[in-house]
């Protein structure tokens, strides 16, 4: 879902998203993201609760496995990059406050959530910590 900045009323948008996506052979599900995007000065603050799951195959035994996770999201979003030699009213540059820079006219919330889930999900996919691998 794309949030078009110029359509935001009263500087805030309530967000409720759930969708599925694939990455190679893995299936990720954004079970729910409930939050809001709020304009603060020149930037926006995205905050909310994310729950997700990943369905994949165990790296060791190749059995299918699934993991669930949750995260609290709090991210500064900006459609205008404030470069390092330019300081905003907080006296901070974008690099110093970890800003997620979007297109000038819209914020693609699904793309953001996709990246977030890929970062949060474990890179080692195991059906269990004790998995002994494939039994021959
Ligand atoms: Zn396994």
Classify the secondary structure makeup into a structural class: mainly beta
Number of domains: 1
Biggest sheet, spatial arrangement of strands: 2-3-4-5-6
Share of helix among residues? 10-25%
Average predicted confidence as pLDDT: 90
Q: Distance between the terminal alpha carbons, to the nearest Å?
A: 47 Å
Ranges where pLDDT stays below 50 over 5 or more residues in a row are none
Globally, the shape reads elongated
Which small compounds were modeled alongside the protein? Answer: zinc ion
Residue share in β-strands? over 45%
Query: Largest sheet, if any?
Result: 5 strands, mixed
Order of helices and strands: EEEEEHEEH
Radius of gyration: 18 Å
Q: How many E-type strands? A: 7
Number of helices: 2
Write a brief caption for the model.
This protein has helices at 94-97, 109-120, and strands at residues 2-4, 12-23, 26-40, 43-57, 64-78, 99-101, 106-108. It is mostly beta strands and 136 residues long.
């Amino acid at each position: 879902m794309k949030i078009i900045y110029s359509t935001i009323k009263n500087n805030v948008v309530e967000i409720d998203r759930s969708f599925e996506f694939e990455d190679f052979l893995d299936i990720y599900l954004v079970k729910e993201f409930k939050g809001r995007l709020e304009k603060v000065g020149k930037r926006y603050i995205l905050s909310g609760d994310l729950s997700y799951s990943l369905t994949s195959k165990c790296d060791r035994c190749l059995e299918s496995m699934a993991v669930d996770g949750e995260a609290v999201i709090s991210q500064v979003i900006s459609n205008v990059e404030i470069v390092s030699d330019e300081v905003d009213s907080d006296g901070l540059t974008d690099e110093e406050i970890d800003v997620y820079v979007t297109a000038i006219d819209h914020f693609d919330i699904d793309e953001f959530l996709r990246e977030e889930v890929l970062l949060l999900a474990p890179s080692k996919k195991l059906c269990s910590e004790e998995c002994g691998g494939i039994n021959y």
